[in-house]
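Researcher: I'd like a structural prediction for the single chain below. Treat it as a standalone chain; there are no partners to consider.
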Amino acid sequence: MVEPVIAWVGQKLAEKALDRAMATGGRKPRRHDLSVQGAEATSDLDITVKYTLPYCRGAKAPVVLTLRRVDRFTESLTLDMVLGETARVRLKRGRYEITAKVHELSPRLGVAPTLHAVGSQLLWLGGNGTAKACIRPAPVIVLPSAAVQPSAAVQPSAAVQPFSLRSRGCPMCGDTGVYYGLCLDHHSYIARYIQERFAPAA
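Model: Treating it as a single chain, here is the predicted structure.
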């Protein structure tokens, strides 16, 4: 009866030792040298983007990551990657807003890629281990030009201007590339405001 318990305890101790060795890579824990003026602690981050293109499930579509530090809006990084791979980065510690834009390449030469999907995630980066971020973008709705510019004959009067997503695009700037009814910039601003304004007290 005692031997199985001893074997179980030994197995658990071995698993913890293995996990600790894998987390540190078999080396001593990395220390942050903050003795130099302006130096900051860093943490590792793995970013994956989960999205399936409707025409090709295994397509290596280009993805543009934007890593914006929330507490310091002047700090913003851009990283190019491809769909289906993991971006492994090392960043200064803090709160980040990570935005992923999935682009669709055109088969014609000289035509710019089309924005296909976009998604974002707020992340607090401050651990000693490697943090994981998984972004699941949503398709972007691009309105046709005919719907954006209705004819004068069917335009409503100036006194009554009902909001119509089909006719106006983003209600704040009129951009035709909308994400849940707003352009990417205004959606990001409003999402950040809601997170900051209604976050539960610590």
